[in-house]
Design brief:
This protein is α/β, with parallel strands linked by helices and 175 residues long. Helices cover 45% and strands 14% of the residues. Helix 1 packs parallel to helix 5 and helix 2 packs across helix 3.
Amino acid sequence: MNIKKEKPLVGIVMGSTSDLAIMSESAKILDDFQIPFEINALSAHRTPHETLNYAEKAYERGIRVIIAGAGGAAHLPGVIAALTPLPVIGVPIKASISLDGWDSILSILQMPPGIPVATVGLDAARNAGILAVQILGSGNSEIFEKMKIFKKNLAEKIVEANKQLSSLKFEYKIN
């Protein structure tokens, strides 16, 4: 199956454009994997009607996974998850108003039964992008093969790092 750029497969949403520096890491991964995506600013609190419309119409527009980043109270991922049957990946963001990021983490992580949000680490939009690719790859062999290569390259980096570490000289180093 060839991936066409006609419709986005992933929706990246954030509470405001101040989150773009973090959320652009998801976009970079999707670009690397040649996955069509869209980016929007939505707010569960300031634009609830637009958020509702986005979530309810995402599937018919081609979206298959939504990555939602938010800081502070961080309700955006949960609200979107409540409004769509699509998988939602939440990215807690350490915002200027946050309690060292913990409010964002707990707001996204502690969802009620029946409304799951796959939550990545604080500011971990890169991992959210990778998870979105893995979800898409479970039903697309082309994407799946690209992910296998990506994972292999990660492993090779560690093997190479160990080769470099083996050349370090210390008096009591024994490996």
